[in-house]
Amino acid sequence: MSLHSSSPTEAVALAGLDLAAPKTPAQPVAVRLEGVRRVFGSRAVLDGIDLEVRRGEFVSLLGPSGTGKTTLLRILAGLDRADGGRVEVASARSVVFQEPRLVPAKRVWQNVVLGHVQNRVTRRLATAALEEVGLGRHVDVWPKTLSGGEAQRVALARALAGEPNLLLLDEPFAALDALTRIRMHDLVAQLWRRHLPAVVLVTHDVDEAILMSDRVIVLSGGGIRFDARVPLERPRKRGDAGFAALRARLLAELGVASPEAGGHA
Amino acid sequence: MTVQQPAPTFLASGAGQPPRGVTLDLVDLSPRAGQTPARSRFGKTARFASRALVPALLLAVWQASSNLGFVAPEVLSSPGEIIAAYAELIRTGELQAAIPTSLARALTGLALGATVGLVLGLFAGLWRVGEELFDAPLQMLRTIPFIAMIPLFIIWFGIGEQAKIALILGATIFPVYLNTYSGVRGVDQKLIEAARVFGLSHGRIATRVIIPTALPSILVGLRFAAGVSLLALVAAEQINARSGIGFILINANQNQRTDIIIAGIIVYALLGIAIDLVMRVVERLALPWRPSLVLA
């Protein structure tokens, strides 16, 4: 995809067309949604969502507050039920929430293998997962002794310990300080490349979405308003012309008029 | 007041800024030499002394007023006489026999009551059916002061050990039930949701997430119940006690031995302190993950 030379809007438009021919058709499908509806009271938060995500694909969900991003993620996680349509998701899936959600009464390694029998074998599994997120020395500590960033890394280790085919990230960086967030971006990108699950990331942060994902989806009015591949080479830089163009386009889709409004929509 | 020249500032107006050339009123908060170590060196003994001062004074006044004949010994025995009463009780072996008897009553009642309270609390906390079945009746029964039940318990269980244990049992159910129930219900729903995502069965969610997280609250209930068990013990031992501290008190009452009565009351108080200390140790051992308790 050498779209850098074309004009910014064109690049995005072309990228949008790119969706018709997925980059990796060989990868198995991890998410398949057809006409998914979710109604709260009389309001359809999700109204006819069609979506297919394949293993190895990193998809970001953007959208103004209340547009059903988190509802969609909860449906994918199996924590919420759709009112209509078809929902098929990989059975091996895990979630990282905005908060770490660690059990305070369990040691870090026990939290990592919360869903498994807890013995020497799973302790080794947990240790390996913790080493991957750089917390190999915190295997036996209590969650309350961890900083916010460390606790979130434990949550990431817990999500990866089950070797998921689908990793759901519900604004996992939102509560972190700016420096920790940058480190977490790198860590998640690195772990994604190593394990290649399908990733669905819900975020408010346009820059984060462009930086990390293969594909950005904007939800609005109960449907998918915008769905495009990110036509930029990795590693991506915020200063690139293509980056700025895509950011401006996404901000426009999100209803933020001025591109100077920054990446934190 | 003269109109100031606007300062070269990015603020729109200079309002709120002090006039130039006038120093602000600064407060010196820098540490003074030798202040902190001195405080920690003398602080401990000084605090202990000031805490001990009033009790020591009261004891002295108490002893003096007895010595000077202001208070008759049959109304209030002097501290010296109470110590002598302990010596007497130990010499006759009454005290050594009474404490284990009374403690056994309290602990038996507590163990039974706490078990019932724990089971009901878990049942009502974990299952909606349990809540619907038990919560309202227990909340109603809770409002009855357990001492009011004594006459009924005597009719039901007689005047022997059974009635005493039953009273302590009845009194200790509620603190454990209430705290277990609210502890289980107070577990963050988000944690339970996360556990569901990671594929934990209902049973495992209960044993790995809910009960360990609710344990601090359960132990608070147990500690309350331990205190209540002693209260109930005192009340229960007024029912025709033939052994235990209550027996010593009833005898002393009949013999007008104020010194022994006060000695017995103090034994109850000491038992209360001992049980509370044990409960604190239990809490500390059972909750190593709570930083506040580790530091306490």
TrEMBL record, chain A:
One annotated GO molecular function: hydrolase activity
E.C. number: 3.6.3.-
Residues forming coiled coils: none
Keywords: ATP-binding, Cell membrane, Hydrolase, Membrane, Nucleotide-binding, Translocase, Transport
InterPro entries from the UniProt entry: AAA+_ATPase, ABC_transporter-like_ATP-bd, ABC_transporter-like_CS, ABC_transporter_ATP-bind, P-loop_NTPase
Top-rank taxon, per record: Bacteria
Enzyme class: hydrolase
Gene3D superfamilies given in the database record: P-loop containing nucleotide triphosphate hydrolases
Positions of the ABC transporter domain: 31-246
Stored Pfam families: ABC_tran
Family: Belongs to the ABC transporter superfamily.
The protein, known as: Sulfonate transport system ATP-binding protein
Species, as recorded: Xanthobacter agilis
Taxonomic lineage from the root: Bacteria, Pseudomonadati, Pseudomonadota, Alphaproteobacteria, Hyphomicrobiales
TrEMBL record, chain B:
A Pfam cross-reference name: BPD_transp_1
Tagged with keyword tRNA processing: no
Matches recorded under PROSITE patterns: ABC_TM1
Record-annotated ABC transmembrane type-1 domain positions: 99-279
Chief site of localization: membrane
Subcellular localization, as worded in the UniProt entry: Cell membrane
Membrane-traversing stretches: 110-129, 141-159, 165-184, 205-226, 260-282
Family the entry assigns: Belongs to the binding-protein-dependent transport system permease family.
Protein name stated in the entry: Sulfonate transport system permease protein
Species this protein is from: Xanthobacter agilis
